[in-house]
Amino acid sequence: MTLQQITSRVHVETAHLGSNNSIIVGDEQLILVDSPHRPTDAMQWNKTVSAFGETRFIVNTDHHPDHTIGNFWMGGDVVAHRGTRERLLTDAPTDEYLRDLFARIDPDAVALVDDYSVRVPNVVFSEELDLHVPGASLELTFRPGHTANSLLAWFPQDAVIFTGDIVCEAGLPSFQDSRLANWFDAIDAVAEHDFEYLVPGHGDVADRAVVDHYRALGREVVSQVASAIAAGHTRDQACDEIRFEDNIHVDTDEYVGYPDSLVEMFQRRSIARIYDDLVEDPSLANR
Ligand SMILES: [Zn+2]
C-alpha cells in the first residue's frame, strides 16, 4: 500500500491492481472515488479509509469491474451516472467470470464468490450531481468518453479533478465502450477545468501535461487505424495488425495481471471500435 496525500483533504492509492482509489476527507465523513478491483484490496481499503472517518458516498466513474467490484465491501451510498447502474444490472459479471478472474488476480478471493453480489449504484444522476459532506463538496458531471456513462468528479476546493479512465497516466485503457468523438470531447472537457492535480483512473497522480500526452497516445492509435483503412485493410486485418501498449491490465511487482487472452480481446475490440467510428466519420482522424 502506498497511500499518497495530495492535498489537505485528498488521499490517493495508486498501487492497487485495477483502478486508483481516492479518499476526500470531510470534517467527519468521507467521499470515495472508485472501488478496488481485488476483493482482498477492497476489504483492506475499507479498513484503511475508516481511519479517516465514516464513508458517506462512494463514486463509480464507470461500470467496469476494475472500478466497481469492490463496492460490495465498502460502506456509504454508491453514486454513479444512471447508465452505470443500468450496465451493472444488465451486464453483471457472472460467478464463472469472477472465479476465473480472482483465480488469476486474487486467489484468496475465489472462495468469496459464493457470497458476493454486485452492489449497484443506489444514487444516480443524468447530467450533474453535487455531493456534500460537512467540509467537502464534490461536483459530478456526466461526460461520455471512455464509456457512454463516464463521469468527471471535480473537487474545486483543492483544485483536484478525478477523471476516471477519461484520462489515464498509465497508458491507454480499452476503447471497447467508447465512441471516438466522445473520447476526444471528454479529454477537452478535462482540459477546461482549472485543476492543479489530476487523479487518473490508472497510473500516477499528474498535472496538466498528462492531458496532452494522453491525447497524443490516442491520436497515435487512431492514425494507425486510419492508415489501415486508407490502405484498404479490413476491420479484421486492422485488428490483427495494430496493438497499443497496455500498462493497465498487466503484471505489477505485487500482482499477476490479466491473462493474455483477455488483454488480446480488449485490444481487438478497441481497434474494431476505432475502425467503425473512423469509417462512419473519417474526420475523427484529425482530432
Ligand atoms: Zn479502468
From TrEMBL:
InterPro entries: Metallo-B-lactamas (IPR001279), NDM-1-like (IPR050855), RibonucZ/Hydroxyglut_hydro (IPR036866). It comes from the Bacteria. SUPFAM superfamilies: Metallo-hydrolase/oxidoreductase (SSF56281). This is Uncharacterized protein. It comes from Aeromicrobium chenweiae.
